[in-house]
Write a structure and sequence with these properties.
Mean pLDDT: 92
CATH topology of the largest domain: TIM Barrel
Radius of gyration: 25 Å
CATH superfamily of the largest domain: Phosphoenolpyruvate-binding domains
Bound molecules: phosphoenolpyruvate, magnesium ion
Number of strands: 16
CATH architecture of the largest domain: Alpha-Beta Barrel
Shape: globular
Oligomer: single chain
């Protein structure tokens, strides 16, 4: 038994369940020539692996149409011929033959002009992984295949991994790397999964399938627990749940400060299910809809129509405002179907509004979809990462252009739709006075604002102690932004993780914050702080 203490909690809660080790196995091909008499054996290994892969993909494609294209590629004669040629003619072993054929195949798809065909390169690589795992007899981890309660232990997880998780079965997440405001932590929090990140050495201490206890309230993990510890953690879990029930009983009490100011409590969401999950908490609306997850869960840039359907339903679900943030891709958020050029500093690179303004047609699809959804509820548009008045003007001009197009087609939308911006760059803080004249609302994104003001990477565990939104420079910036917004009579909210931190509530109320937007799991705690503030 070993007790590990962790200094920061990414998402609260307590879990006791078997470990699910989520690690990419070594899928590199063993190099080596074969003898002519080995050809048949090598080709048989390929045929066996292919049969298993096709069987698995057939099952998957019955559940999810994404896999239909995978299936076609896996069964393509070019793949078969490519491997056969390399084994028969070049006397390469099957692992090398598969690796090289897949690489060649992926390059062909990648160089195609048609966007849809280009996207298939990622499918080809996925098939390569599946074939190689079969040939090497290693198990590929599959988060969407989890069938019983587990605690996932991983080196790190990407947003694309986290979106595959079923929160009713994944009882906890522990990662070796990552910081508390990395996107994985944010997604885990929105799903209500207890999560501890940056736990150095955890992978070498656990074994797949053995019980692990984690308390993401106090930051404690018990590896290889004895019976008494398992019982103790089960008991802690019950206490935690009864405290949760007490907080839930306050859900119908409005969040009004002792001075009589009504504070808006909103949810940060990434999809429709997050909104549904947040409704029982009694939210005032959605303060941040991270629209990029809609793009990340897709196999192509979602069309105007596809987006409209989602935003319309989101508008109908939201009790009051639905704040849709336009695409904030880049940084640590990638798309499986779009190759980003490698950058030295992705968080200072081509991300968020910079991409939208460069890919105007794609941006307009999104804006038209949001505008059309505004006919079905109180929808607001929010731009991420703005640094200059020119950018804000350009983005707002595109909204006007889209309004005109919809008008010409006779399509309904809210003509008075509010257009606001995130304050998450030092430039936007320094220019807050100017921006407040042009934007209908502000929402302070402390996750990025903290990393940019302090020059501290939000996901780097090594400097996690320095990543601190209570740093006086960050607090001063927040105060200035709220004052600048209020001078122009606009509402100032916060949608960074700080808004859901109980320790920050009093301070933020004193600074005059109007709206707190956070993961649904934090709302009960923040509401209690506001109501019971002395
Ligand atoms: C932020 O930066 O605070 C924010 C809410 O945006 P994201 O975490 O998605 O970058
Ligand atoms: Mg941000």
């Amino acid at each position: 038994m070993e007790r590990i203490c962790v200094d920061k909690t990414a998402s609260r809660g307590i879990a006791v369940a078997p470990v699910y080790l989520y690690l990419d196995p070594d899928l590199n091909a063993d190099s080596g020539q074969i003898l002519e008499e080995q050809i048949e054996d090598e080709l048989k290994k390929f045929a066996d692996a292919k049969a298993v892969v096709i069987r698995d993909l057939t099952k998957l494609s019955e559940k999810n149409e994404i896999f239909a294209a995978h299936l076609e590629i896996a069964d393509d004669f070019m793949l078969q011929d490519g491997v056969e040629n390399k084994v028969k003619n070049d006397l390469k072993n099957v692992q090398q033959a598969v690796a090289e054929t897949i690489e060649e195949f992926a390059v062909i798809f990648d160089s195609m002009d048609d966007e849809y065909m280009k996207e298939r390169a990622a499918d080809v690589k996925d098939i390569g992984k599946r074939l190689m795992a079969e040939i090497k007899h290693v198990k590929l981890p599959d988060l969407s295949g989890i069938a019983e309660p587990v605690v996932v232990v991983a080196r790190d997880m990407f947003p694309s991994d986290t979106v595959k998780i079923d929160p009713s079965l994944v009882k906890g997440i522990i990662t070796e790397e990552g910081g508390v405001t990395s996107h994985v932590s944010i997604i885990a929090k929105s799903m209500g999964i207890p999560t501890l990140v940056g736990v150095k050495g955890i992978l070498s201490k656990v074994t797949d399938g053995e019980i692990i206890c984690m308390n993401a309230e106090d930051g404690v993990i018990i590896v290889k627990p004895d019976e008494a510890s398992v019982e103790e953690y089960q008991r802690q879990k019950e206490c935690y749940e009864s405290e949760k029930a007490r907080l839930e009983s306050l859900r119908n009490t409005p969040a009004v400060t002792k001075e009589g100011k009504r504070i808006y409590l909103c949810a940060n969401v990434g999809n429709l299910q997050d909104i549904r999950n947040a409704l029982p908490v009694n939210i005032d609306g959605v303060g941040l809809f991270r629209s990029e997850f809609l793009y990340m869960q897709n196999t192509h840039f979602p069309t105007e129509e596809e987006q409209f359907k989602v935003y319309k339903e989101a508008a109908e679900l939201s009790p009051q405002e639905l704040t849709i943030r336009t695409l904030d891709i880049g940084g640590d958020k990638e798309l499986s179907y779009y190759e980003f050029e490698k950058e030295e500093n992705p968080f200072l690179g081509w991300r968020a509004i910079r991409i939208s303004l460069d890919m105007k047609d794609m941006f307009k699809d999104q804006i038209r979809a949001i505008l059309r959804a505004s006919a079905f509820g109180h929808v607001r548009i929010m731009f991420p990462m703005i640094i200059s008045a020119e950018e804000l003007k350009e983005a707002k001009d595109i909204v006007e252009e889209c309004k005109k197009e919809l008008e010409e087609k006779g399509q309904a939308f809210d003509r008075e739709i509010e257009v606001g911006m995130m304050i998450e760059t030092p430039a936007s803080v320094l220019l807050a006075d100017e921006f407040a004249k042009e934007a209908d609302f502000f929402s302070i994104g402390t996750n990025d604002l903290t990393q940019y003001i302090l020059a501290v990477d939000r996901g780097n565990k090594k400097i996690a102690k320095k990543y601190d939104y209570f740093h006086p420079a960050v607090l001063k910036a927040i105060g200035q932004v709220i004052e600048a917004g209020h001078r122009e009579g606009i509402k100032v909210g916060m949608c960074g993780e700080m808004a859901g931190d109980q320790k920050a509530v009093e301070l933020l109320l004193d600074l005059g914050l109007d709206e707190f937007s956070m993961s649904a799991g934090s709302i009960d705690y923040v509401r209690e702080q506001i109501i019971n503030r002395k």
